[in-house]
From TrEMBL:
GO terms for biological process: peptide transport; transmembrane transport. Pfam families: ABC_tran, oligo_HPY. InterPro entries: AAA+_ATPase, ABC_Ni/Peptide_Import, ABC_transporter-like_ATP-bd, ABC_transporter-like_CS, Oligopep_ABC_C, P-loop_NTPase. It is found in: Cell inner membrane. It comes from Melaminivora alkalimesophila. This is Peptide/nickel transport system ATP-binding protein. The lineage of its organism: Bacteria, Pseudomonadati, Pseudomonadota, Betaproteobacteria, Burkholderiales. It comes from the Bacteria.
Length: 340
């Protein structure tokens, strides 16, 4: 018998701590009949090898559009109108579609909120996983199947050989999402964009997936951007967090620092909306008003109409500052430590 076929990694692993993705001044606008929707309006992000970056904000804040922009899935009437996105030193803004197709699924993968956006309902799981591997490299079906089994085991799926023979409708929602995550891992990507992949799952399955994701990043050096509205999830998963509001990052830093000592009133509001043992039986604090329409943003600070600390100074757009090493902030009236 010959030696079993061994599939080499498709991408050279990034050195620990090396910047995998650097986003500077990213602007993604949608040109509609009603006007220009500035869904992403000057976003700065950086994520390093083995690191999980949490991107947090309410619905409509631009989180998902930021993720779609990174992976090059913006369709008309939207387009990237400014900024830079460098993946391991390579500029993605303006890159040819052929180059982006080569990177998608191979070096940069995306996990969607609905696993059925990834899975074909009429094909068995093994067919879909083998095709995902063979689309990027020449290898035998047997070797591709072995890698698929390994990926399913990595995300904690019991009896992976049996699951390979199943159709998506035969699996539970949590199991389908695990399969979708496994498909994202098949080609050993250097960067994964996860767009609220556990929102529709029960808390037990969610906790298991979060554990597997964190373990994956630590062991393989994969960089991950985890997009969510749930700051409680991010606090236990991400190394760093960026809080997004109305298309902009309003606060960013190490997760522990931001959660324990938030400086932006919006971040404080998100934290206050999380139920805790101390608030059992009490009404939760809520942020007044609603997220503004991106077609009609108020002048100056977009959070001004909902902020209890707003003043005339907030009629001017706040510029990003660094109140401490590793922290960034856009606010004229940041919270003092005792208020945080």
């Amino acid at each position: 018998m010959g030696k079993p076929e061994v599939l080499p990694p498709l991408a050279t692993p990034s050195a620990a701590g090396e910047a995998v993705l650097q986003v500077q001044g990213l602007k993604t606008h949608f040109f509609t009949h009603g006007g220009v929707v500035k869904a992403v309006d000057g976003v700065d992000l950086e994520v390093r090898a083995g690191e999980v970056l949490g991107l947090v904000g309410e619905s409509g804040s631009g989180k998902s559009i930021t993720g779609f922009s990174i992976i090059g899935l913006i369709d008309e009437p939207g387009r990237i109108v400014g900024g830079s996105m460098r993946y391991r030193g390579r500029e993605l803004v303006g890159a040819p579609e052929r180059e982006l197709q080569r990177l998608r699924g191979k070096e940069i993968a995306m996990i969607f909120q609905d696993p059925m956006m990834t899975l074909n309902p009429v094909l068995r799981i093994d067919t879909q996983m083998i095709e995902a591997i063979q689309a990027h490299e020449r290898t035998s079906a047997a070797a591709a199947r072995a890698r698929a089994l390994e990926a399913l085991a990595m995300v904690g799926i019991p009896s992976p050989a049996e699951r390979l023979l199943a159709y998506p409708h035969q699996l539970s929602g949590g199991m389908r999402q695990r399969v979708a995550i496994a498909i994202a891992l098949l080609n050993r990507p250097q960067l994964i964009i996860a767009d609220e992949p556990t929102t529709a799952l029960d808390v037990t399955i969610q906790a298991q997936i979060l554990y597997e994701v964190q373990k994956l990043c630590r062991e393989t050096g994969t960089a991950m951007v985890w997009i969510t509205h749930d700051l409680a999830v991010v606090s236990g998963l991400a190394d760093r967090v960026a809080v997004m509001y109305a298309g902009r990052i309003v606060e960013a830093g190490a997760t522990a620092d931001v959660v324990r000592r938030p400086a932006h009133p919006y971040t404080r509001g998100l934290i206050d909306s999380i139920p805790t043992r101390a608030t059992h039986g009490q009404l939760l604090r809520q942020i007044p008003g609603m997220t503004p329409s991106l077609l009609q943003l108020p002048p100056g600070c977009a959070f001004r109409p909902r902020c209890s600390r707003a003043s005339e100074a907030c009629l001017a757009e706040p510029l990003p500052t660094q109140p401490a090493p590793g922290r960034s902030l856009r606010c004229w009236h940041p919270l003092e430590p005792e208020q945080a």
